[in-house]
Specification:
Elements: E1 4-6, E2 20-23, E3 26-32, H1 47-64, E4 72-79, H2 85-95, E5 102-107, E6 117-124
Parallel strand pairs: 4-5
Antiparallel strand pairs: 1-2, 2-3, 3-6, 4-6
Helix pairs in contact: 1-2
Amino acid sequence: MGKDIIYTENAPEPGNYSQATKLGNTIYVSGQTADDPETGEAVHGTVAEQTELILTNIKNILEAAGSSMDNVLKVNVYISDMKHKKEMDEVYKTFFENNPPARIAMAVKGLDAGLDVEIDVIAEA
């Protein structure tokens, strides 16, 4: 059983990594920041706007892999400051209304392009 590389034009172009990989019945989505899939540019909006764009991109990647947000098992959320957690959570919960996945949220220093949020997920295919 080998890994499959997941790619969709409905999410930002990856750099020297894959948008996601799939091995067996598990999908690993790379960390996503608030990048516009059409322009490739970082979107320096509010934490809520960044979270919305990131989770939409993740949703699109999962759909390209034949999965969905309902199949997300684990989420890692990285935010520039814990003061942004409540704002991030307001949008986050709209993507996981029922049976939310396991999650960790942590403050980190120096996210890509000076953005405030990065999220990666593990999901079932």
